[in-house]
Amino acid sequence: MERRRLLACVIVICLISLCVARELNVKSKYALPAIYNHTLATILVEYSSAVYMSDLTELFTWTCERCNGLTKGFEMIELIVDVQACLQAFVGVAKDLDAIVIAFRGTQESSIQNWIEDLYWKQLDCNYPGTSDAMVHHGFYSAYHNTTVRPGILSAVKSARELYGDLQIMVTGHSMGGAMAAFCGLDLRVNFGVHNVQVMTFGQPRIGNAAFATYYSKLVPFTTRVTNEHDMVPHLPPYFYLFPGKTYHHFPREVWLHNLGFGTLVYQIETVCDSSGEDPTCSRSVSGNSIADHLTYYGVEMGCDAEVACKMVMHPALAAYSKTDEAGNFVLSRDGAISVLRINRESDAQSTTS
């Protein structure tokens, strides 16, 4: 009898937690003031997954296997590929969200183990411009600011706004892509005066110290970091609680996904954490020891669809149209590319039937 009462209490707690943590109403527009919206998270995680795809033709035309479901109807503006740094991102318009969506690819699965090992030893080594005492991880900062990704993103945002007006901007990414998404959101706010920017990341590592976290949270308050169970990446680089001013420090707000229950009666709880960025009752309350938890969010597969790092597949028509620099980095823009691709496909079809 006592066990039944205990189980009943657990079920009630789970149901209450689910009701508190989730925004269950599906809306056509997502207003910025919401701290966390479950439905929006399940949409943005699909964009963070899709940006990993290696078939650039299918990704650019939004026909890839991860380009369905809640992201159906997305209109690509630009696809940016930095071959040298093995980076990939896209900008487009999601009409159901009434927003410009920017997504950054994270670390490819083939190199994630080495990348995680490197993060154990990384030190803060870059003074963030415009604020005293704020320091950031040089590698993450450079991945966004010192590659061809940033100019491609900014150009695409400008084009999207010229076409669709002053839409809100939603920036997302998984793993290292989440780190780049955070720097992008801050860049848009500080350097380009974009006020209606929202950032949501998945499995994001720490990217700066406490001074940077404070600076970031004031300027980009509509930010959510979703962490899953024992995902090890949000625990990196390490947080040393004895040196709070000198160590890496997450910015708020974290939403921690974790399971509660017994046997087959298990519920996923979405805990909205406190405003410190380092809530000891959230992901910091468990050990970060799982790569598997890093590679799945909301049941969506994260990571590359190809085993070979930086593998790319692209139709010759798109390759011929893309804007490429001397280093081989390139941008695929919507203007003209789809029509060129359609003409070539029609030509291929006619050659086959004749």
Short structural summary:
This protein is of the alpha/beta class and 354 residues long. It has helices at residues 2-21, 38-50, 56-60, 112-119, 138-145, 149-164, 176-192, 210-219, 316-321, 334-353, and strands spanning 75-82, 87-94, 99-104, 126-127, 135-136, 168-174, 197-202, 223-228, 254-262, 265-272, 296-297, 300-301, 323-324, 330-333.
Describe the protein.
This protein has 354 residues and is of the alpha/beta class. It has a single domain (2-313), classed as Rossmann fold (3-Layer(aba) Sandwich), CATH 3.40.50.1820. It is built from ten helices and 14 strands. Strands 10-9-8-7-6-3-2-1-14-13 form a ten-stranded mixed β-sheet, sandwiched between helices. The protein has a two-stranded antiparallel ribbon with strand order 4-5. Helix 5 (138-145) packs across helix 7. The longest helix is centred in the N-terminal third of the chain and has 20 residues, at 2-21. The protein is globular, with a radius of gyration of 21 Å. The relative contact order is 0.15. This is Fungal lipase-type domain-containing protein. GO terms for molecular function: hydrolase activity. Residues 1-21 form the signal peptide. It holds the Pfam family Lipase_3. Keywords: Hydrolase, Signal.
